[in-house]
């Protein structure tokens, strides 16, 4: 404890040497570090969110004690959220994309808001504007990359879209640079450190929130089942772990989250795996990759389901055979994949939750925000989803999906004529003989391409 | 009498007889003169000024030597990246007094290794395709590259969560974020530099030289003509230096582009030759490196009495690069200055005597590397045919056939293929 107090004092010395000594903000930041040394005292820097449970619920539950009231509020809101989830799935890919975008914006806003409260930086010039501007830039960049991939035909038809897509990276970079220069020009003498903190905070938030939400959208385009099943697994794991912990919980899991127990963890693991196995979707609505039909200007989900979604016979190993008396079992290969997804959701998903808990303890807040009564903010619900989205994307890229033929065709049908002829020639040649080193063939293509290009 | 070398350093520069704006502190370490000898001389400014210039020349010569040694520059870029990362992380440690935090140094270096593994894997798979196909173990690593990288990163993430200690939560989160922002800046940009290098060494040399040249030109113009301060953040920069540096850099870039564009060694994309196990830069130079004639517009013709001029198209591109380096490059420098003021440090580190740390030299380079990469992707390079071919050859035969037919019809429609080309 004394060592921590000493650290606090040396940090004070550091502040006093600076030219910012008299500034009120440095004093407040100093106050922040002071409270770090005394973990028990000090108000949370973020104002405690007021209870804004809707009046209706309050009236209906007025008779119950507060612990059960809380339980019921949470339960009702959980059901409401799950129904909402099913409704938007029914509405289709377009609505899903919009919802993902809205969730992303709300999460970003919640985290930035915490940063502002921690650093008391409301009055910093330009800062809110700059954070939102960076969010816009990064979203523009990512959506542009997605749009170019999936909406290729539409983009090629419209002239302004074609130019935007051809110079997309340059435009995104120019937009980002403008924000960067604005930041540099907005540096105010007394607030340098705070401004750099907020700059760093904004970028880390963007890294987490925006990249993951775009991975979710990529997963969505693979087929809605790759969107639904991971999210359902995480939700199921949450609920099951809570139930098991509620009824059987005894041994605490980790000091960081005292409410989590080993019983909840293991019970949640097994039930989520079972849930994953039970998921069987054959409907083409869910399993087909989402495509944009440029004639009808709408999304369609129409295809012959791939091998993953055709029932296949698997021979059980001898031990299981003797147990169950079945020589083979009919499964969708997808169910085997969903077992690995469930396993990941149960084992690693909680680490996302622990990370968020640590973050909340570090900044002394109870919830990210008060958007959902009983549950906290949107970020509270989505903290485990982020790791899951990245994992699913990496999983698909590594184990499921080969190269996307549509994407390769787009690259081929680009504007240059000469390399296409050469590629055509090599492709024909390549199909006649089995090529052993595509790189070698590529080299001669590269040189002839170089000659063509201006 | 003011003895600037005694006592604590101040952030404002002290001007000596040459107007040299260098800052002194009692910890000033001269490479070959001890501190007693320095006190002996009447004005240490002179010594400092000359030693700065000598070191600059040493760095520039080192740069040219490394260029001569060829694509061994990969190792150089890697080394610089590691040093920059270490400098910035060190600053974070000092600011947050987090030396005693458990695991933290290990975790920062672990994340650096993970992210580098991911990026190098992506690069290697593209450029070393033939070598990778030969070795089975490499093939496995390439096929599951993203999954392996993600697993490695996750392991680090879980270690971080498990290492959270009750009293130090906030510090640990700060250091986590600090590490990630540093990785974002340092590692991604250094990989963009390497990708530029593979496009052709000229795309590596010219941007870096232009930034160095802009630094030197702005300094010289500011030294001789500097009067109006440019920005409160860096009181040593002046408008005269800025504008003079802009024009000086344009000229230097133009001349340098002309000099380098003639050599195949610089101009060709770097390839890895799997037979000789070496890098080669051997090809037919593309059109931007072939001399062309440009006609001047009439107004300029009347002034110069030349109708046409022979230029490499690359020289026009170098004008764009120089403009960017002169106008936007300084913002990278201001950013670094603001950062140093925010955390009350004079230099990023003390690696290079007289110049500060490696990061001090490279702060303007980062924006330039990204810009060069984006510029090449937008204006110079189309999609990479060998990459597309690799993707094609992995598809199923039916898919290949349908793509083949689609392409053949498309080319016939555009009249590139004669109707009966099959």
Shape verdict of chain B:
flat
% residues in beta strands of chain A: under 5%
Low-confidence stretches of chain B: 1-28
Q: Low-confidence spans of chain A: pLDDT under 50, at least 5 residues?
A: 1-50, 415-419, 428-454
Tell me the span between the first and last alpha carbons of chain A: 68 Å
Q: State the strand order across the main sheet of chain B.
A: 1-2
Family (chain B): Belongs to the CDS family.
Membrane topology (chain B): Multi-pass membrane protein
Pathway (chain B): Phospholipid metabolism; CDP-diacylglycerol biosynthesis; CDP-diacylglycerol from sn-glycerol 3-phosphate: step 3/3; Lipid metabolism
GO cellular component, one term (chain B): endoplasmic reticulum membrane
What does this structure look like?
The complex is a heterodimer of chains A (454) and B (422). Chain A is mostly helical and 454 residues long. Chain A has a domain at 411-453. In chain A, 70% of the residues lie in helices and 5% in strands. Chain A is built from 21 helices and 6 strands. In chain A, strands 1-2 form a two-stranded antiparallel ribbon. Chain B has 422 residues and is mostly helical. Chain B has 2 domains: 70-384, no CATH class; 385-422. Chain B is built from 18 helices and 6 strands. In chain B, the strands form 3 sheets. A two-stranded antiparallel ribbon of chain B has the order 1-2. In chain B, β3 (271-273) and β4 (278-280) form a beta hairpin. In chain B, α10 runs antiparallel to α13. Chains A and B meet through α1, α9, α10, α16 and α18 of A and α5, α7, α8, α14 and α16 of B.
């Amino acid at each position: 404890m004394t060592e921590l107090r000493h650290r606090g004092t040396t940090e004070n010395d550091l502040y006093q040497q600076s030219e910012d000594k008299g500034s009120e903000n440095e004093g407040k930041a100093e106050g922040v570090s002071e409270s770090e040394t005394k973990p028990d005292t000090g108000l949370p820097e973020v104002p405690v969110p007021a209870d804004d449970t809707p009046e209706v619920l309050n009236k209906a539950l007025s008779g119950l004690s507060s612990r059960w009231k809380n339980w019921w509020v949470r339960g009702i809101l959980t059901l409401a959220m799950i129904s909402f989830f099913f409704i938007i799935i029914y509405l289709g890919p377009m609505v899903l994309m919009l919802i993902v975008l809205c969730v992303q914006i709300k999460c970003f806003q919640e985290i930035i808001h915490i940063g502002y409260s921690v650093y008391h930086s409301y009055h910093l010039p330009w800062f809110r504007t700059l954070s939102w501007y960076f969010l816009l830039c990064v979203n523009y960049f990512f959506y542009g990359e997605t749009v170019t991939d999936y909406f290729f035909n539409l983009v090629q038809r419209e002239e302004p879209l074609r130019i935007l897509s051809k110079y997309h990276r340059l435009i995104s970079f120019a937009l980002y640079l403008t924000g960067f220069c604005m930041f540099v020009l907005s540096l105010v003498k007394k607030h340098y450190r705070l401004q750099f903190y907020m700059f760093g905070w904004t970028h880390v938030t963007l890294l987490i929130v925006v990249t993951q939400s775009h991975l979710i959208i990529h997963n969505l385009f693979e087929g809605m089942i790759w969107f639904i099943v991971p999210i359902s697994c995480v939700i199921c794991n949450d609920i099951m772990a809570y139930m098991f912990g509620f009824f059987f919980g005894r041994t605490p899991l980790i000091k960081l989250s005292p409410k989590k127990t080993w019983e909840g963890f293991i019970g949640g693991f097994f039930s989520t795996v079972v849930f994953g196995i039970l998921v069987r979707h054959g409907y083409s609505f869910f399993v087909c990759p989402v495509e944009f039909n440029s004639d009808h200007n709408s999304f369609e989900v129409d295809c012959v389901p791939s091998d993953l979604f055709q029932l296949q016979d698997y021979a059980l190993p001898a031990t299981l055979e003797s147990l169950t008396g079945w020589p083979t079992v009919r499964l969708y290969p997808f169910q085997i994949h969903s077992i690995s997804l469930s396993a990941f959701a149960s084992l690693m998903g909680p680490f996302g939750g622990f990370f968020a808990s640590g973050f909340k303890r570090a900044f002394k807040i109870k919830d990210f925000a008060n958007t959902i009564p009983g549950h906290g903010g949107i970020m509270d619900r989505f903290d485990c989803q982020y790791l899951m989205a990245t994992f699913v994307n990496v999983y698909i890229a590594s184990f499921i999906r080969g190269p996307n033929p549509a994407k390769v065709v787009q690259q081929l049908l680009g504007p240059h004529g000469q390399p296409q002829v050469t590629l055509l020639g090599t492709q024909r040649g390549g199909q006649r003989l089995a090529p052993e080193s595509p790189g070698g063939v590529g080299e001669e293509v590269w040189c002839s391409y170089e000659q063509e290009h201006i | 009498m003011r003895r600037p070398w005694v006592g604590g350093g101040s952030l404002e520069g002290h001007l000596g007889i040459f107007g040299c704006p260098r800052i002194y502190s009692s910890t000033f370490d001269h490479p070959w003169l001890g501190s007693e000898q320095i006190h002996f001389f009447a004005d240490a400014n002179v010594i400092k000024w000359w030693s700065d210039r000598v070191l600059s020349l040493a760095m520039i010569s080192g740069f040219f030597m490394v260029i001569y040694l060829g694509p061994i520059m990969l190792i150089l870029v890697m080394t610089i990246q590691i040093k920059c990362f270490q400098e910035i992380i060190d600053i974070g440690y000092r600011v947050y007094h987090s030396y005693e935090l458990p695991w933290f140094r290990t975790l920062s270096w672990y994340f650096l290794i993970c992210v580098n593994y991911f990026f190098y894997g992506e690069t290697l798979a593209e450029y070393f395709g033939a070598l990778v196909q030969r070795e089975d173990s490499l093939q496995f690593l390439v096929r599951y590259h993203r999954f392996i990288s993600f697993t490695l990163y996750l392991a680090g993430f879980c270690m971080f969560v498990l290492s959270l200690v009750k009293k130090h939560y906030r510090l640990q989160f700060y250091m986590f974020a600090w590490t990630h922002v540093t990785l974002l800046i340092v590692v991604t940009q250094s990989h963009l530099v390497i990708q530029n290098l593979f496009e052709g060494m000229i795309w590596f040399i010219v941007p870096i030289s232009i930034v160095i040249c802009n630094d030197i030109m702005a300094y010289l113009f500011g030294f001789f003509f500097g009067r109006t301060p440019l920005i409160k953040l860096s009181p040593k920069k002046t408008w005269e230096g800025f504008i003079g540096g802009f024009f000086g850099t344009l000229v230097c870039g133009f001349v340098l582009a002309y000099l380098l564009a003639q050599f195949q060694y610089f101009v060709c994309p770097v390839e890895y030759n799997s037979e000789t196990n070496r890098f080669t830069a051997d090809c037919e130079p593309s059109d931007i490196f072939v001399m062309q004639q440009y006609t001047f517009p009439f107004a300029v013709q009347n002034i110069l009495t030349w109708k046409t001029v022979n230029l490499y198209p690359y020289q026009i591109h170098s004008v764009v690069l120089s403009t960017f380096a002169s106008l936007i490059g300084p913002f990278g420098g201001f950013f670094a200055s603001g950062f140093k003021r925010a955390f009350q440090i004079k230099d990023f580190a003390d690696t290079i005597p007289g110049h500060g740390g490696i990061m001090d030299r490279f702060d303007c380079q980062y924006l330039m590397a990204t810009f060069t990469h984006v510029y090449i992707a937008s204006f110079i390079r189309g999609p990479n045919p060998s990459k597309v071919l690799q993707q094609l050859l992995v598809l199923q035969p039916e898919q290949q056939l349908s793509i083949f037919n689609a392409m053949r019809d498309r080319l016939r429609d555009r009249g590139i293929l004669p109707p009966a080309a099959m």
